[in-house]
Specification:
By secondary structure, the chain is an alpha/beta fold. About 35% of the residues lie in helices and about 20% in strands. Strand 4, helix 6 and strand 5 form a beta-alpha-beta unit. The structure holds S-adenosylmethionine.
Length: about 260
């Protein structure tokens, strides 16, 4: 078992996720719709840590721009969304989110934003896709003005037990363990690049209003871990979910880590 986990981890760590080679972009927003109040919850939690209200934000790994407008409206900020996936960016651009939100092709390793432009780099569910974390941290440092911050919203190994897919799909726990970082793995490359950890929260958030919605959205398979499971394991898990019924909203717990550059 230990050997198998090690092999899975090594295979996964070599394999970057290219969203353009999947059907995730078209299904992403249907599968990942945010519950009312959840964006405000994240904006409030970040604001409680940030030294000041951000005015220029890079939404790094913005994907379909699901959170870009919320950042722009919530903080009255200009937002540049950056993502390597043409298909994800096409979905984002189609939304026409107004003059304060724009999108560019780029990546965490090559952030297509001028040096010192941003006062916040926001990364939501992106960290586990980054191959070269040292270069990414250096790039964040480059695009941030002195005293600027990086806010990382990500699933972590510490919160594995709260993931709603756990226990339903054979092999899910192994791929989650192989791919998702431990908290210390998130902070290490940023601290090595000169950032200082200024806040950490675990956010308990409702992800689906009820079981039926959870099952319908999970069926979209708009998740980079579910898409890696063999089709038979995914279908067997879906059958188990459909046969079950749990009362109340579905929740998970996600980590928020905020680090600051020297002033
Ligand atoms: C799970 S989606 C998150 C999208 C968005 N941040 C959100 O929370 O809805 C992950 C995104 O990371 C992007 N991505 C993958 N590798 C990346 C990298 N090296 N740098 C920046 N973004 C990356 C993918 O193209 C995808 O759009």
């Amino acid at each position: 078992m230990v050997r198998r986990l090690t092999e899975i981890r090594e295979a996964w760590q070599k394999k970057a996720m290219d969203y353009d080679k999947t059907a995730i972009p078209e299904a992403y927003d249907r599968g990942r719709q945010m519950q009312p109040g959840v964006m405000a919850l994240w904006l409030d939690e970040m604001a409680s840590i940030l030294p000041r209200r951000p005015e220029r934000i890079v939404d790094l790994g913005c994907g379909t721009g699901r959170l870009s407008a919320g950042l722009a409206n919530g903080y009255a900020a200009q937002v540049i969304g950056v993502d390597p996936s043409e298909k994800m960016l096409r979905e984002a651009q189609a939304k026409d989110l107004g003059p304060d939100v724009s999108f560019r092709r780029g990546s965490a390793e090559t952030i297509t934003v001028e040096s010192g432009w941003a006062d916040l780099v926001f990364m939501s569910m992106v960290f586990h896709h980054i191959d070269d974390r040292e270069t990414a941290a250096a790039e964040c440092m480059r695009v941030l003005a002195p005293g600027g911050c990086v806010a990382i919203r990500n699933a972590t190994r510490e919160q594995a037990a709260s993931v709603p897919f756990n226990g339903w799909f054979e092999g899910f726990e192994a791929v989650y363990e192989a791919r998702m970082p431990a908290l210390a793995e998130i902070t290490a490359p940023f601290e090595a690049a000169g950032f200082r950890l200024i806040g950490r929260r675990v956010i308990d958030q409702p992800t689906h209003p009820d079981w039926t919605t959870f099952v319908a959205r999970t069926a979209q398979r708009a998740d980079s871990l579910l898409i890696r499971l063999p089709d038979a394991a995914f279908e067997a898990g879906m059958a188990r979910l459909r046969a079950a019924n749990r009362p109340g909203p579905v929740h998970d717990r996600v980590d928020l880590v905020v680090l600051q550059t020297p002033a």
